[in-house]
């Protein structure tokens, strides 16, 4: 199917939905909601189609005016300038439309479960993991997303061993999904008297938050153990068996939760993380089955891959998947310039997908 034919179908479908909803012939309430959602998704595409076709039509009219021997020189000069501007604009509008028509990741509109874990590097790695968690919290604040800590295991001196948070809002997973991988830091620790640069690492995993309709979990597939929560230094957080460990037997995925004093609340949080991990594993398996070269979002997509380096002595952040370096380390860690990296990764991903469909 050619591009023009596909665009005609989109415009026709948009018109059909508009007529059905305005006439009240859309069926029951659930069907009306489904149509309204589809209509809203098509609206920006139809507007872009109109913009492209208006530019093409205007360019055609100008070409005729320029070719007309009766057109005076002054008018022809003006028309030629406008025609030149439009011939540069049309390819840009076409590319914009092609990007809008790319297959959407069904998880892009979902909330996300973000997990940060200290890697190699001891206490310095734990401090860096805490820096990353603060970066994502500030980034969430910038986008007016809700940032809620689910689980946090700290070192007691400012670092974190691991943390899980729920980030909810519009387009959360679409923006954060490129953060999965190994993040490396190069800096001089405060405890380093010789001024030597140390290299440490932390891992980040971003999982689309799964709803009940996305993942069906049967109670028979779960082994749930309870135990007494432990705090730093072996001190009891409480005197009841409120901590929960859930094992999903078919996949072997294990989730532990002890932050809440209530066993019921710990169980609910653990199930939320478990559902997200199962959903993520299913998405990855489906991607692998479709094609080997689509396993990744950018790069190899393997979470064991080093994706980014934060170099403090040079004040730079380098994303190794797209060879992008920003000398804005402070602003990235403040969450202000992280969008520059995310935008570049998104553009690279779109370019890769366009190359596959053209």
Structure report:
With 358 residues, the chain is α+β, with helices and mostly antiparallel strands. The chain has helices spanning 3-23, 29-67, 73-100, 122-142, 172-176, 263-290, 329-333, 338-357; strands at residues 112-118, 146-154, 160-168, 181-187, 198-208, 222-227, 243-248, 253-257, 306-311, 316-319, 324-326. It has an 8-stranded mixed β-sheet with strand order 2-3-1-5-4-9-10-11.
Quick take:
The chain has 358 residues and is an alpha+beta fold. It has helices spanning 3-23, 29-67, 73-100, 122-142, 172-176, 263-290, 329-333, 338-357, and strands spanning 112-118, 146-154, 160-168, 181-187, 198-208, 222-227, 243-248, 253-257, 306-311, 316-319, 324-326.
Mean pLDDT: 84
Q: Poorly predicted ranges (pLDDT <50, ≥5 residues)?
A: 232-236, 290-304
- In total, the number of strands is 11
How far the N terminus sits from the C terminus, by CA atoms, comes to 12 Å
Strand order of the largest sheet: 2-3-1-5-4-9-10-11
Task: Please state the oligomeric state of the protein chains shown.
Answer: single chain
Shape call: flat
Class derived from helix and strand content: alpha+beta
Order of helices and strands: HHHEHEEHEEEEEHEEEHH
Helical content class? 40-55%
